[in-house]
Design brief:
Strand 1, helix 4 and strand 2 form a beta-alpha-beta unit. It is built from ten helices and seven strands. The chain has one domain: Rossmann fold (3-Layer(aba) Sandwich), CATH 3.40.50.150. By secondary structure, the chain is of the alpha/beta class.
């Protein structure tokens, strides 16, 4: 949908597909404002968050395993003139093979990626190795305690090998704390995003898209504004967020081997 990006600019990269992407950006953006420097996007997809970070002043580098995604990301970065956003193809399961990335980044973001990786602890170790001492990790992944939005993909069947699907249902607080601790990272905050209204709009999109993807996207588009009310509704209803969100940092004394 590059025509949409040409028409609406950067916001179009957040609304061209999954309705939950915008929620992740709303969680990510204020945290990115607190930092600066070089940023690595592990599992960047078509580049929305890499581009957004570049527009905020970061030297942003996105990694995707898919050459088609890389091409889309490069096109969209060019359209919105995010000149400091660059991209490369890399299987993040083998992030350790990229010696050029070790201890080079002030911020690493990894959004809705780790649930696709069988060796999640290895990925966290590799991410930590890419951070400079004092650097920050911002990560989101499905919340295991959240009711499924729909039968697929949230309730499975889960993939038994890495075919692009989810290999686990999600994570809870203790999982992320353990992954961080073993990787030598200190947890600063665990929070949640994508509340009840976001999840309902996503359900409608998935159902409508079964009949026609474009028609479903158009039909749901006016409803995308509803999740603005989610923070209040979530507090009142105590409905769990779809994603659990981690902010952690690499101590200045850390030494990751």
């Amino acid at each position: 949908m590059n025509w949409l990006v040409r028409t609406l600019g950067f916001p179009a990269t957040l609304i061209h597909g999954d309705t939950l992407v915008w929620d992740r950006w709303r969680w990510l953006k204020p945290r990115l404002r607190k930092h600066k420097g070089r940023l690595l996007d592990v599992g960047c997809g078509s580049g929305s968050f890499t581009i957004g970070a570049a527009r905020m002043g970061y030297d942003a580098f996105g990694l995707s395993w898919d050459e088609r995604n890389q091409h889309k990301a490069e096109q969209r970065a060019a359209i919105v003139r995010a000149k400091s956003a660059t991209f490369d193809v890399c299987d993040v399961r083998h992030l350790e093979s990229r010696a050029d990335l070790l201890s080079k980044f002030d911020v690493v973001i990894c959004l809705e990626t780790i649930e696709h990786i069988l060796k999640d602890q290895k990925l966290m170790l590799d991410i930590a190795a890419c951070l400079r001492p004092g650097g920050t990790l911002l990560l989101t992944t499905p919340n295991k305690t959240c009711p499924a939005i729909g039968p697929v993909p949230d309730d499975g069947p889960l993939s038994t090998f890495e075919d692009g699907g989810h290999v686990r249902r999600g994570y809870v607080d203790s999982n992320l704390r353990t992954l961080s601790e073993v990787a030598g990272l200190e947890v600063d905050e665990i929070s949640y995003c994508s509340g009840y209204l976001s999840q309902r709009v996503t359900y409608l999109l998935r159902m409508a898209s079964r009949m026609n993807r474009i028609a479903g996207w158009v039909a749901v588009l006016p409803l995308r504004i509803l999740p603005i009310a989610d923070p209040v509704l979530t507090r009142l209803s105590r409905w769990p967020g779809y994603s659990i969100c981690l902010q952690a940092h690499k101590p200045f004394s850390a030494s990751i081997s």
